[in-house]
Amino acid sequence: MPAPTVLRSLVLAVALAPACAVPGDSPAPAAQAAEVTAPQRIVTLGNSITEAVFALGAGDRVVGVDLSSLYPDAAAALPRVGYYRQFSAEGVLGLRPDLVLASSEAGPAAALEQVRGAGVRLELVPAGENLDAARGNITAVAAALGRPEAAAEVLAALAADLAEADRLRARVTSRPRVLFVYARGPGRLLVAGRDTTGAELVRLAAAENAGDALTGMKPWSAEAVVAAAPDVVVLPTRGLESLGGVPGLLALPGLAETPAGRAQRVVAIDDLKLLGFGPRIGQGVRELLVSLHPELGEGAAP
């Protein structure tokens, strides 16, 4: 395959411009949660929202999910209604939900309006790419489900994971330069610049973002990748698989000429632990810390 000089772009599942939230579609405040009738048929749009619903013990009420919702296995086996940023209103309504829980990035707007116009309760949960957003989303989803008390256990588990990450971070002595990429095949790869999920994860993992010259998720030239001189390349597991593993990744222009390429230092973490800042984000950060910092030792592995 001819080596392109520019890493081609992909419509990124986690970093596109958010759809506009419609006034009145915000999650029910916790103070009002007692008044919320417990839904019996739920459709979820967005992987972190789906994970939250299952973690909060309401997975048995979910009747449909979007294409990004691959965890847990019970969710992955449910009917699909399209990708949450481009879902099918007809597919959602055909499942006869009494609640649609969606990321504020869900769309298109016409589909949201169609769901609303059919008289179905629609709650938009604010999207975010930081730990405060992860905590807030768990609380918001619990309130929308009419069971705010269920949030405490999930938040406690998240806090325990993050506390362990803090303990690991305190032992870190290295500061590797990390190139965080998102890929779906050799012609579809983006580099995480500033103000991205990838950049926040690199920060939480006590490393430097080699893509800091960029803002957002962007394709990057081979020359820019070489100049960035990353020590490690980090990407979601499914992205690495789409490239044919480490050999396929390092065959992309420029990567083999970096310190990471020469040392073949590539770290792949489960997509849904990293992308979306859901209930398992603490686990993802812990795994990334251990993978990036050899001084932590094998005994630190989750």
From TrEMBL:
<feature type="signal peptide">
    <location>
        <begin position="1"/>
        <end position="21"/>
    </location>
</feature>
<keyword id="KW-0732">Signal</keyword>
<dbReference type="Pfam" id="PF01497">
    <property type="entry name" value="Peripla_BP_2"/>
</dbReference>
<feature type="domain" description="Fe/B12 periplasmic-binding">
    <location>
        <begin position="41"/>
        <end position="300"/>
    </location>
</feature>
<dbReference type="InterPro" id="IPR050902">
    <property type="entry name" value="ABC_Transporter_SBP"/>
</dbReference>
<dbReference type="InterPro" id="IPR002491">
    <property type="entry name" value="ABC_transptr_periplasmic_BD"/>
</dbReference>
<protein>
    <submittedName>
        <fullName>ABC transporter substrate-binding protein</fullName>
    </submittedName>
</protein>
